[in-house]
Design goal:
alpha/beta; Double Stranded RNA Binding Domain; 3 domains; eight-stranded parallel barrel; three-stranded antiparallel sheet; 17 helices; about 20% strand; globular; binds 3-methyl-2-oxobutanoic acid; binds zinc ion
Length: about 500
């Protein structure tokens, strides 16, 4: 019998921590339901003590999903654990994930403590969490740089205190695959009560080794992996779910099975990318735009003769359907609804009407409407409750002349207009905008990206604006890149703290 590997998804916790990737509760529920359909075993839904938003999201996710265990993160602090238990009250299956740093640098600099005291705090946190739930996971933060002998003592102690899963995070992404595998192996062989718990991997990708380290951990005995969709997460990200699921599917000889319905991988990847405004790099393994595109003549020739010459995975196995109906301006609501549901997005009839109207506008300007365009449209009404909306924008620009822009804004129902000139169309438009919104704000980052290709493409703009000591992230998408830029700026302003 093959071994079962549990998939612990932390897209909504480690992934959502990434600046600019924050989701609202409705979006988090949408993601959680998609993760359930994908077949993940555990959903880490947030760090409830960190904000009322996280707390409420865990409550709502717990109500919305049935099968996966819902997990809440805490520090080894009683107040955190109390709040986590409260946030999980509606979960059908619940887990508290508590822990503390165990490397010498964490013990000394973060906690100003010593090894023995840290073990005591770890034991106390696990025992306290067990008063609320039967399923307690302990994380030894920075385990990757923790001395193995001491780590084994920590693991043994927390299992004795009642931990059912012990997480061995390579928090800084420092470990080599051989060292990480050896660490898991050491724990499997030196912790006397290891048969009473599951070891979990949690690898970060700072040196591009997260997936390799995770596989090495599994080959040495870990039976849970902590992963995110598209590998998003702190800094360079976490191990990506899609890579792990496909590695064990492609390498059947390893005899490791997951519960992932791999055909839902691609739609889930697109959904996360769209909701979090986080593009997937084209050459990303498994889900990148080029992951199945053979461009060299030799490869194309081989694939046409027999796909097995250059393809180790069938694109259909990850849910890429190249034959899906092409959407155009003549497509009806039903075709749009069908495509959205393939992409994991279910809309109410009213929302579908709004998205369909926007779809027709884009379809008029653009020949082929691709999945990214559609997902953008589906997310477009996320700004419908924003106080500031753009009514119109007119810009004239050219070579040898100064650009001039006039803009109309609707701020909570009141109309405002302004005009300005600038050294380019975006500069002119933003200067006009700033004449209406008179605040001391500074544009810190500005990126424009075409979604696919073609001069009729939708441009996506990401912006960072600093205001009152805080950084705000905004997003805009439009076939007119000046309009997309202003939309992104307005998106930032709408998020300013009142
Ligand atoms: O990377 C890490 O150590 C973590 C823990 C909080 C599990 O994310
Ligand atoms: Zn992490």
């Amino acid at each position: 019998m093959s071994d079962r590997l549990f998939i612990f998804d932390t897209t909504l916790r480690d992934g959502e921590q990434v600046p600019g990737c924050q989701l609202n509760t409705v979006e988090k529920i949408q993601v959680a339901k998609q993760l359930e359909a994908l077949g993940v075993d555990i959903i880490e839904a947030g760090f409830p003590v960190s904000s009322p938003g996280d707390f409420n999201s865990i409550i709502e996710i717990s109500k919305a999903v049935t099968w996966p265990t819902i997990c809440a993160l805490t520090r080894a602090v009683e107040k955190d654990i109390d709040v986590a238990a409260e946030s999980l009250k509606f979960a059908k299956r619940k887990r508290i994930h508590t822990g503390i740093g165990t490397s010498d640098s964490h013990i000394k600099y973060k906690f100003n403590s010593n090894r023995e005291e840290i073990i005591e705090r770890a034991i106390a946190a696990v025992k306290y969490a067990r008063r609320y739930v039967d399923d307690v996971e302990f994380y030894a933060e920075d385990a990757g740089r923790t001395d193995n002998e001491y780590l084994a003592r920590v693991v043994e102690a927390v299992i004795k205190a009642g931990a059912t899963v012990v997480n061995i995070p390579d928090t800084t992404g420092y470990c080599l695959p051989t060292d990480y595998g050896a660490k898991i192996n050491y724990l499997m062989n030196h912790v006397s009560n290891i048969d009473k718990a599951i070891l979990s991997t949690h690898c970060h990708n700072d040196l591009g080794m997260a997936t390799a380290n995770t596989v090495s951990g599994v080959l040495n005995g870990a039976r849970q992996v902590e992963v995110t969709i598209n590998g998003i997460g702190e800094r360079a990200g976490n191990t990506s779910l899609e890579e792990i699921a496909m590695i064990f599917k492609c390498h059947q000889q390893l005899d490791i099975q997951t519960n992932i319905n791999t055909q839902k991988i691609y739609p889930t990847s697109r959904m996360i990318s769209s909701l979090m405004n986080m593009p997937v790099q084209p050459n990303k393994a498994v889900v990148g735009r080029n992951a199945f595109a053979h461009s060299s003549g030799i490869h194309q020739d081989g694939v046409l003769k027999d796909v097995r010459t250059y393809e180790i995975m069938d694109p259909h196995d990850v849910g890429i359907d190249e034959n899906s109906i092409v959407l155009t301006a003549r497509s009806g609501r039903a075709a749009l609804k069908h495509r959205l549901s393939l992409l994991g997005v279910e809309l109410t009839p009213k929302k579908l009407d709004t998205v369909y109207e926007e779809f027709l506008k884009i379809a008029d300007k653009k020949k082929d409407i691709n999945d990214d365009d559609i997902l953008l449209l589906a997310g477009a009404d996320r700004s419908s409750n924003h106080a500031i909306k753009m009514d119109y924008l007119q810009v004239t620009s050219g070579i040898g002349v100064r650009s001039v822009a006039s803009i109309g804004l609707n701020i909570s129902g009141e109309k405002f207009e302004a005009a300005a000139s600038g050294n380019g169309p975006v500069d002119a438009a933003i200067k006009a905008l700033k004449k209406i919104i008179e605040r001391e704000m500074t544009l810190k980052e500005f990126t424009i990206q075409a979604i696919s290709k073609g001069s009729d493409d939708v441009g996506k703009v990401h912006m960072q604006v600093e205001y009152d000591g805080h950084m705000y992230y905004g997003f805009g998408a439009n076939t007119d890149i000046v309009a997309a830029s202003v939309e992104a700026y307005i998106d930032c302003i709408n998020k300013f703290r009142k």
